[in-house]
C-alpha cells in the first residue's frame, strides 16, 4: 500500500512539474501538454491592436478578451490570461481539455474578422532513463538507452558535450536507442530522451573496453 502511494506521488510529481509552451497564433498549430501539467498558449502578439477576441473549446467560450481585459472562469484557478504578452495559461490539465480550440477575432464594429484553430494533444512525460553498457569481444561497446513512461520518445546522444559522430559508431546513429561504439571510444556519454512535453537524460563515463582477453567482457573503470 505504501509503495503504491509512493508511486502515485512520484507520478503526480512528474505530471505537475510539466510545463509546456505553444504558439497558438498560427492556424492548425499543434500544442502539447501533459495530464496534470500546465500549458502556456500564446494567442496574440503583445503588440496586437485587436481589441476583442474569443477562445472557444469545441463550441464553448472559455476566454473573452476585450481591450486587454479578460473574462473567464476564475472559480478554480485553472485559467490565467496575461494581457502583457497575450498568453493564456491552463493549469492542472485534465482529459477534457485535449482537442480543438478556436480563436475568433472581432473588429471594432463587433464583426468577426478572423478565425483560426489549434489542437491540444496530451503526451505522457518521460519519467526515467536507463543506460546500460556492455563490452563486446573485439573491444567495442554496446550501449542501450531505454526510457520509461514517455509517449513517442526520441533519442539523441552526446559524447563530451558534442553529438556522437558516425566515426565513433559501429552501428546505430545519433538517434538510435541502441548503439555500438567502436574500440577506443571513451568519454562522458549522455543519452537524452525527449518528446513534446519534456526531456530526461542519463549520463555515464565510458572507458575503453579490454579486447581479446579472457576477461574481455568487463570495462576498465
Ligand atoms: C494591450 O496592452 C499592450 C501592452 O500591455 C499594448 O501594447 C496593446 O496595444 C494593448 N492592446 C489593446 C487592444 O488595447
Ligand atoms: C507572459 O507573461 C507571464 C507573466 O509575466 C509570464 O509568466 C510568461 O512566461 C510570459 N510568456 C511569454 C511567452 O512571454
Ligand atoms: C478536431 O478537428 C479535426 C478536424 O476538424 C477533427 O477531425 C477531430 O476529430 C477534432 N478533434 C476532436 C478531439 O474533437
Ligand atoms: C545525426 O547524424 C546524422 C547522420 O547520421 C547527421 O546528418 C545529423 O546532423 C546528426 N545530428 C546532429 C544533431 O548532429
UniProtKB/TrEMBL annotation:
Residues 125-207 form the Ig-like domain. It comes from the Eukaryota. Coiled coil: none annotated. Residues 1-17 form the signal peptide. The keyword Signal applies. Keywords: Signal. Gene3D superfamilies: Immunoglobulins. This is T-cell surface antigen CD2-like. It comes from Pundamilia nyererei. The lineage of its organism: Eukaryota, Metazoa, Chordata, Craniata, Vertebrata.
Amino acid at each position: 500500500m505504501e509503495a503504491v502511494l509512493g508511486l502515485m506521488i512520484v507520478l503526480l510529481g512528474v505530471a505537475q512539474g510539466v510545463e509546456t509552451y505553444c504558439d497558438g497564433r498560427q492556424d492548425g498549430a499543434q500544442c502539447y501538454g501533459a495530464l496534470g501539467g500546465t500549458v502556456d498558449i500564446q494567442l496574440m502578439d503583445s503588440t496586437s491592436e485587436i481589441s476583442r477576441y474569443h477562445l472557444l473549446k469545441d463550441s464553448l467560450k472559455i476566454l473573452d478578451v476585450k481591450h486587454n481585459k479578460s473574462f473567464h472562469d476564475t472559480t478554480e484557478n485553472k485559467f490565467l490570461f496575461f494581457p502583457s504578452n497575450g498568453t493564456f495559461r491552463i493549469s492542472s490539465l485534465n482529459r477534457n481539455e485535449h482537442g480543438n480550440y478556436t480563436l475568433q477575432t472581432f473588429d471594432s464594429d463587433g464583426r468577426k474578422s478572423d478565425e483560426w484553430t489549434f489542437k491540444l494533444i496530451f503526451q505522457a512525460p518521460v519519467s526515467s532513463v536507463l543506460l546500460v553498457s556492455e563490452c563486446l569481444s573485439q573491444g567495442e561497446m554496446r550501449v542501450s538507452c531505454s526510457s520509461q513512461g514517455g509517449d513517442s520518445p526520441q533519442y539523441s546522444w552526446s559524447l563530451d558535450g558534442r553529438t556522437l559522430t558516425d566515426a565513433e559508431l559501429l552501428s546505430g546513429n545519433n538517434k538510435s536507442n541502441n548503439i555500438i561504439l567502436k574500440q577506443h571510444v571513451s568519454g562522458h556519454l549522455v543519452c537524452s530522451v525527449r518528446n513534446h512535453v519534456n526531456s530526461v537524460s542519463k549520463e555515464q563515463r565510458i572507458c575503453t573496453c579490454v579486447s581479446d582477453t579472457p576477461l574481455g567482457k568487463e570495462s576498465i573503470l
